[in-house]
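# nightly structure sweep
# worker-07 picked up a monomer target from the shared queue
# config: single-sequence mode, recycle default, output format = C-alpha cells
# input follows
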Amino acid sequence: MNVSVIIIDMIVFAALFTIMCFKTTGGNTTTQVENYPPDIQEEYFKTHERIPTAPLSKRVIITKSIALTGFAVILVIMALLAGAVTFKQGFLFAFGMMAWIGAFDTFFIDWVLFANMKRFRLEGTEHMDKEYHQKWFHLKGMLFPGLVFALIPSAVVGLLVSLIR
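# output follows
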C-alpha cells in the first residue's frame, strides 16, 4: 500500500470529518445532541423539545448508521486508492483511519474546538464553560463505543475491497 496516499487520505478524511462536524453541531441543531455531555443535554432540553438521545434509541441508531455508511463509502474509495487488495488490508486500513479520526475528533475537535468555540455551544448552554471542557467524557466515548463501532465500517470496507479486487 502507498504510504503517501495513506497520508493524503488521512488529511482528506480529517477535512471531511471537520466539515461534517461544523455542519451538524451547535446552535439550535439537534443532529448530534447525543454526543454532548449529559449535563449540557439536560440544560438544552429545559428550553427545547426533548428528542431521544439514548444510544439504542431509533433516532440515534439511524443517525449513527447513516454516518457509518458514509464513512464506509469514503473509506472504500480511499483504501482502493491506497492500494488495498485483500480483506485484511482493507479492514486494517479502514480501522486505522477510524482510529485516526477518533483521535483527531477527541484531541482536536472536542478538546480544542468544541471546548473553546462558541459556535459549538447549543442554544441556552452558552454559559456552561466547565461542562464543555470535559476531556474524560470525550476520551471515554472515543475508546468505547467509538473503537468498537469502528469495527463495523472496517469489516464492510475489508469485504468490499476483497470483492472489488
